[in-house]
Amino acid sequence: MIEVSIKKELLSVDGKLELSIDMNFEDGEFVALFGESGAGKTTILRMIAGLEVPDSGRIVVKNQVWFDSQKNINLHPSKRKIGFVFQDYALFPNMTVKENLTFALQKGDDAEIIDELIETVGLKELINRYPSQLSGGQQQRVAMTRALVRRPNILLLDEPLSALDHTMRHKLQDELAKIHKQFNLTTILVSHDPSEIFRLCNRVYQLESGVVKKEGSPSEIFVKEKISGSFKFVGEVLAIESCKPVYLLTVAVGTQIVKIMATESEREELHIGSRIQIVSKAFHPMIFKIDST
To answer: Is residue 290 part of a domain?
Structure first.
């Protein structure tokens, strides 16, 4: 059982923010922290890792107390068996891949874990390369592998894939799922991507203004209806053309640019830059498979 019951006063762009978190979940779960920027997600990871100190509360991992404000317990970060993966890789540029992995070993650790992980994750062809000779996806694979060297009790992931392109993100999501299953590793992921959370996680904590607003499975958090009768998209108006008796809107929806028709009454309140919601009936959608390259 993992218990994270902590409080800490933070400074946000809007002033003081009281972070008050109470989470309990089982060993081996894949947990997501989801919410807007500034809600306290990364701070939670840093407090679990011992890189920041809560004002009060308890952190208990596998019956070992890592932090207890009442009993004045605050286990040093080096004694907490955690793996931490950041968005920016944090590899040593003057070390090869194998040297980066070996550096994570502590005195008394079994060095055989390095070769085991290299084989498991498929890094054999990269072991003598330096970070500057690796792609972003390869660097993040090395960073994830390094986080496993100490056989952690918890793997902490702070938006580790957000800087990668769509194809590489999917590949590394598959690798994360494989690692989680193979090592039965309790994992906490900070992510803004609902699709990523759906693929990887079994539990979601949705944070808002420093507190847990919702808790549940990805379906319970993100899907409002069991069977949706419509699709809803949010977009930004880029251009408006008159094609009487209707208007043609050019709209940015995510990374795509689409053109849709609008009636004169719909057009009246719109201008370039307006944010709009597009609703389309979904009972008879046309679905086409996109082949990955």
So the answer is: no
136-146 vs 112-121: helix crossing angle, rounded to 10: 140
What is the SS3 assignment for 86?
A: coil
Q: How far apart are CA 240 and CA 262, in angstroms?
A: 9
pLDDT digits (tens, 9 = 90+) for 166-184: 888 888 898 889 889 888 8
Are residues 252 and 238 in contact, defined by beta-carbon separation less than 8 angstroms? yes
Inter-helix orientation angle 166-183/112-121, to 10°? 130
**Structural tokens at position 210:** 């420093």
Q: Are strands 154-158 and 56-61 parallel, antiparallel or unpaired?
A: unpaired
Torsion 75-154-48-92 (CA) sign:
positive
**What distances in angstroms separate CA 250 from CA 253, 258, 262, one per listed residue?**
10, 6, 10
Residues 244 and 200 in one domain: no
Q: pTM of this prediction?
A: 0.79
- The β-bridge partners of 84 are 156
Residues 238 and 131 placed together within one structural domain of the fold: no
